[in-house]
Amino acid sequence: MNQHNNDKTKGLDFDAVVVGAGFGGLYAVHKLRNELGLNVRAYDNGADVGGTWYWNRYPGALSDTESFLYRLSFDKELLEEGDWKHNYLTQPEILGYMNTVADRFDLRLSYQFNTKVTATHFNEETNFWEVTTDKGETVTAKFLVTGLGLLSATNVPKFKGMETFKGEQYHTARWPSSGVDLKGKRVGVIGTGSTGVQVIIATAPEVEHLTVFQRTPQYSVPIGLRVQSDAEKAEIKANYEEIWKQAKSSAVAFGFEESTISAVEVSKEEQERVFEEAWNTGGGFRFMFNTFSDIAINPEANEAAANFIRKKIKEIVKDPETARKLMPTGLYAKRPLCDNGYYNTFNRDNVSLVDVKENPIVELTPNGVRTTDGEYELDVLIYATGFDAVDGNYTKIDMRGRGGVTVSEKWADGPTGYLGMTNTDFPNLFMILGPNGPFTNLPPSIETQVEWITDTVKYMVDKGFSTIEPTVEAENDWVETCRSIADMTLFPKAESWIFGANIPGKKNAVYFYLGGLGNYRKALEEAGYKNFVFDHAMANV
Ligand code: FAD
Ligand code: NA7
Fold first, then answer.
1. Is the CB of 117 inside a 6 Å radius of any atom of ligand 1?
2. pLDDT value at position 242?
3. Do 534 and 422 share a structural domain?
């Protein structure tokens, strides 16, 4: 398409720049370059493909989506050839899969790795994006597609004395590819979210002593990790068409039907039976959404689920004081966790738990971590402290739209995205998993968005449009829709990254569309292009 032969394309280096080499970026390069025939340049600051799974190499890193659904569905042969050992995927398996995808569709050809995009400016005279990297290069492109990752910008708390600590310090999402030798060492882990839980379980058997610094106790259920037989995999593959259809029309896209039965309308015995069955099957999303319809909505139903998990913690953890500290008291309304033996790990002699709400961390010393109740000597300190989710990587870029407005200014009251992909003032910007996008098992949502983006780019090319941007009213309405759906749930009442509550000073806002993937796909279909302005300048003449 990029012919450089008329005024509209004069000075244009690429039809599209894609940022990111995770599921989103890779699929976008494939669709735009291999299917639409566009001239595409792509960047990632990692040394190779993988995104999340390139960076998160910490011990125990595991998907919490089941293996058969944590992949792309668009290519039948790729699906057919897919293989896995267990019903959940380890980080090396997922990274291997991303490499297969990259090789199969020659995607590396379009990438510059080890290259960070530092600035993206929309030029209103040319209608091109000017994309600058940390290598000092600036290129122009008509379309800017960002697959920057929603759990990608790391959150490293700033403790006094961090630079004085003589041991090693690692954030789980910047784990060295050469690995870290933890054998026989005194290791500390700060954080007990999904990542902390995994790293704690995996490192405990290896280290001399593990000290877990917990701020908020977690509700976690068993993951139900087991080997999947060839026969089971063959059956899944034989039914893949139906399976993907169901996932894409469901709410959370985790491969099960969400329950339609209210927990508060059944007897206590029936509640207990259903929870016990889900506990034995495994899976965090299954426990929250496959058991009853109202756990994330109705405080009474939520308390029934929470109580069941608390009872299990009491049964599993032998030391009553440790069990007390591990016992969550608030709502069960963060991203639902699952694990492969978390609470049981605290029965080990070499694992101890420090409650840093009761005894806050005062500082890091040359020898370890000092809390208000004493000093914990460590050789290695692991930060499992999560991410500046959703907009964290956007605000790190000097991203400017119409009138030079920066994305940080535009999102001062919380980030916004019409349909989770587009933004007023930022024409021809397409965000994959941008703000106000679906909260689900993510590959099917990523596919949905990349396919919409590709269709839209094609539509513009076919019609000869230079720019697209949503109307202000449409964006406001969408954000309002996201807010009202969120307010029907209990999620905003629990402090977590889902609402930006995990980062000190971050705006507590609605970062997701919690209406489910099926409804999101319907919303995309119904919206069409009626809420977009094409060729803004002409429209305003
Ligand atoms: P990412 O995979 O995050 O890729 C974004 C890439 O963009 C990164 O490589 C990043 O370095 C690069 N980038 C960002 N900014 C720039 C820049 N300025 N310049 C150049 N490059 C840049 N989701 C699920 O659905 N199920 C799961 O089981 C699951 N498990 C997870 C486990 C962990 C430990 C984590 C951290 C996340 C998990 N997720 C899971 C969420 C996961 O992030 C998504 O499923 C998916 O991998 C996101 O893909 P992506 O392409 O959108 O972004
Ligand atoms: P999370 O879920 O944000 O968890 C981060 C953990 O780190 C959580 O326990 C936090 O406690 C803790 N934390 C954060 N900052 C501090 C400070 N300053 N002091 C003590 N403890 C702290 O991130 P994860 O990486 O585990 O998971 C994110 C998603 O990635 C997950 O949902 C999966 O989808 C993959 P808090 O609870 O805030 O009190």
1. yes
2. 98
3. yes
Cα gap 457→38, rounded to integer Å: 10
Q: Which ligand is nearest to the CA of 215?
A: 2
> Do both 291 and 316 map to the same domain?
yes
Check whether residue 139 and residue 29 sit in a common domain: yes
Residue 536's pLDDT is 80
Parallel, antiparallel, or unpaired for β 374-377 and 368-371? Answer: antiparallel
* CATH code: domain of residue 68: 3.50.50.60
In the chain, the N- to C-terminal Cα span, in Å, equals: 27
Residues 298 and 202 grouped into a single domain: yes
For the CA of 144, the nearest ligand: 1
**Within a domain: 159:** no
Please name the residue whose Cα sits nearest to atom 42 of ligand 1.
Answer: 52
Indicate if ligand 2 lies below 6 Å from the C-beta of 330.
no
Q: Which residue is associated with the tokens 């699952």?
A: 338
**Measured from the CB, is residue 386 less than 6 Å from ligand 2?**
yes
- Please say which residue of 323, 351, 383 terminates a domain: 383
Q: How far is the CA of 53 from the centre of ligand 1 (A)?
A: 7
| Structural domains of the chain, count | 2
Ligand 1 in reach of 324 Cβ (< 6 A)? no
- What is the Å distance from ligand 2's center to 212 Cα? 13
AA letter at 75: D
Mutational test site, ligand 2, from 385, 439, 491, 508, max ligand atoms within 8 Å of CB: 385
Smallest CA-to-CA distance from 443 within 79, 87, 71 is with 71
pTM of the model: 0.97
Regarding whether 137 and 277 lie in a shared domain, the answer is no
Work out whether the CA dihedral 483, 484, 485, 488 comes out positive or negative: positive
Q: Which residues form the domain of 354?
A: 188-383
**Do residue 374 and residue 402 come from a single domain?**
no
Q: Indicate which ligand has the atom closest to the C-alpha of 28.
A: 1
29: Cβ below 6 Å to ligand 1? no
Tokens 């953890």, located at residue: 317
Output the pLDDT for position 418.
98
pLDDT, averaged in runs of 10, over the chain (541 residues): 61 97 98 98 98 98 98 98 98 98 98 98 97 98 98 97 98 97 98 98 98 97 98 98 98 97 98 98 98 98 98 98 97 98 98 98 98 98 97 97 97 96 98 98 98 98 97 97 98 94 91 98 97 77 39
- The 3-class SS string of 247-288 reads HHHCCCCCCCCCCCCCHHHCCHHHHHHHHHHHHHHCCHHHHH
Both 370 and 276 in a single domain? yes
The answer to whether residue 163 sits within a structural domain is: no
